[in-house]
Every structure is written in C-alpha cells, then in structure tokens.
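Lab notebook: predicted structure, single chain.

Context: the supervisor wants predicted structures on file for every construct in the current expression panel, including those that have not yet been purified. This is the next one on the list. No modifications to the sequence; it matches the entry in the shared construct table.
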Amino acid sequence: MALANTTADQIVTSKQAQAQAEYDRIVQAADAEVVVARQAAVEEVTAKVGEIVLSAAERVIGREIQAKDHQDLIDEAIAAVRAETATGASAGAAGGAR
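Prediction complete. Output recorded below exactly as produced.
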C-alpha cells in the first residue's frame, strides 16, 4: 500500500509540474499576442490620426499636401509612437511580473 501511495504522489507531482509548465507557456504566448496586438492598434490609430490632422490642415491652408509629404509625416508619427511604446513596454514589462 505504501508503494501505491508513493507512486500516486509521484504521478500527482509530475502532473502538477506539467500543468504549471503548460500554464506558463499559455500565459507567455498570450502576453506576446497582447504586445503585438497593442502595437498594431497603436500604428493603426496613429496613421488614422495623421490622416485626420492632414485633412484638417489642408482645409485650413486651402491646398492639398503632396502625397509623399503626407506619407512621410505619417511614418514619422508612427516611428515616434513606436519609440514611446518601446520605452513604455520596457517599463511595463519590468513591473508586470506575475
């Protein structure tokens, strides 16, 4: 009977370790997906805001901004947001331990 209890305890311990490893893997994958989705959302919003601002500026100054200039401004805004997001993500990752 003692052998059966020892074997059962070993099985339980092994399964608990496997479950914890699977949990850790799932959480890590979810965290990575959140980072990617957040970055995509930030880029999308930044591009849309850039378009809105340029549209408003065109109305104010009464002429159309060249397409290349428009795209350059959007790219610069996205780069600035990426830099800010990377800085914020680094700080968030340091404080976000589970």
